[in-house]
Amino acid sequence: MKIEAIHLREVQMPLAHPFETSFGVTTGRRILLVELESEGLSAWGECVAGEHPYFSDEQVDTAWTITEMELVPRLVGSEIASGRDCPALFEQVRGHRMAKAALENAVWEMDAQRQGISLAKLLGGTREVIPCGVSIGIQATPEKLMETIAKEVAAGYQRIKLKCKPGWDAKIFAMVRERWPEILLSCDANSAYRLEDAERIAGWDAFDLLMIEQPLWYDDFYFHAALQRRIKTKICLDECIRNRRDARAALELGSGKIINIKVGRVGGFTEALAVHDVAQEFGVPVWCGGMLETGVGRAHNIALSSLPNFSLPGDVSASKRYWAQDVIEPEVTVSTEGTIVVPTGVGRGFEVVRDRIEAITVRKKTMRA
Hints:
Blueprint: E1 5-21, E2 24-38, E3 41-47, H1 60-75, H2 86-90, H3 97-115, H4 119-123, E4 129-131, E5 133-136, H5 142-155, E6 159-163, H6 170-179, E7 185-188, H7 198-202, E8 212-213, H8 222-230, E9 235-237, H9 244-253, E10 258-261, H10 269-281, E11 286-288, H11 295-305, E12 328-329, E13 339-341, E14 351-352, H12 354-360, E15 361-368
């Protein structure tokens, strides 16, 4: 396929509810969307970089610059066979995986359209439905948290994940477990702890957590291995897994027993598939993490989650949890059993509502072959 034109758009969307993690509070999102044109077809990708370089070293402005100045010139006008060609095309540019993923994922979507199949099928997905969990941010009060959890449990979500940080951890877990002793419960520290907190973290074994996600440094799996040896609860690795090599090294070291795959964090579908396969080789389950995506990125997460080793409920929840109005139709919905149906239509399986995107676009640039 020849990529004839690439459109960059920054859109701004307010969240339906503030979302707090150990990094701070997010009330709205600046998001870079990319649109590719080829032979009369249009495909979309989403860059999941945040407003600040807190989760990773990327943010929306660096992603825009790298995409415009380095990545688009390599892709626009090129003849490529599939999305698997993109890593080699972008290889000279070090890092900037979220920017790369936006373009690569759009190429995969374009290829699915050209072949007349669903994106999930092109990726190798086998699931007709995917299990869904929900990520709940730090709340203003414990009482507010309990209200939020009650709402999500009633909605049918199969796993509740609590963001945590020092001062918002053990007492909160105890309260939740006392009220809901049977729910699948996990926590996500976003690197808020250090190895000297090991004794404190070991105390969380009492709460029967499915996993503790990325408790230590964002770029470490050596000290995570030391922590995993000291606790019974499984550690889930997130920020520190950038590629298949990281996954293999971490699993050989025993740094964790679960991996969260975020397609933007690893640089696109090609590397996400490779991490999936490495984890499967080690008998380690994976799940798909969320980054407050619009429906474009959410649709891609659904397709990825249909692969065989995505056996744990991920963060792919309903559009309405984050947006008053999403940019796709139909919006993503979750059944009362806590599942999402994997689309079988051509491409992403959801229509992008162009006029909604245009209404929230604050800058735009088109580059042609």
